[in-house]
Design goal:
Elements (H helix, E strand, L loop, with lengths): L13 E5 H5 L6 H12 L9 E5 H8 L8 H18 L3 E5 L4 E5 L1 E6 L5 E6 L14 E5 H5 L4 H15 L4 E5 H8 L9 H19 L2 E10 L2 E11 L7
Antiparallel strand pairs: 1-7, 2-6, 3-4, 5-6, 8-10, 9-10
Length: about 240
Amino acid sequence: MKNEKSKTYNNFDTVVQSNSIIKATHNLTRNELLTFKKLISMVDTKNANRKIYFTKAELVEYLFPQIKGKGVDTCNEYYLRAKNYCKKLMDIILEFNTKERTTCIAFCSKLTWENYQNLVELFFTPDIMPYICEMKKNFTTYQIGMIQKIRSAYATRIYEYCKMHLHKRKWVWVENLNEFKKMLGAEKKYKNRFNQFNVAILKKSVTEINEKTDIAVSYKKLRNGKNIDRIEFTVKKSLNYIPK
């Protein structure tokens, strides 16, 4: 592996992924999710190569931009955390749900973290490749630096979901509340507790998305009798966002 070269990536690199990945169910934390998306942004979507190389430094600097100017001991701690996030992806299963079936797919099959070099080697599973390569339709793209600014996994997932609808030119749509909670992995914690879900997840996420990203999101609560069972979302390009 020492002769392999890794490309230098930056925050303007693009995440290209199937809409099915955006809608898939999983329990990734915020930093695990950022690691997941960063690795997807490194894929050569035209050549469909399952193997990618990247440097430890580029991943650490993406996950922890505050690392600049820190001492050696602090930096080592961040590198260890980044390594653990990559290892966690070995255990992650993406659950794709349709009316007909549930399909579970592993994300990656092999990880090599060199002890005395700056390179990391990762193999994606064959089953995940159609969801990140050679897609002709039903996919979404965005700059990897956009989600770096978002501080929660819920807000990151809602951002992606809204970008997906923006790509489809579907600026207004209605979500079943229970299905939306399930996609976010919040159905058990907030079952029959809309007010808590609204305050802890929806309001916080939409506020953060509107303040920090390239889209503007709003939503309305829809009732069936006394119960709120749907959410109407509206998304558009932000007029206030200035790329940095």
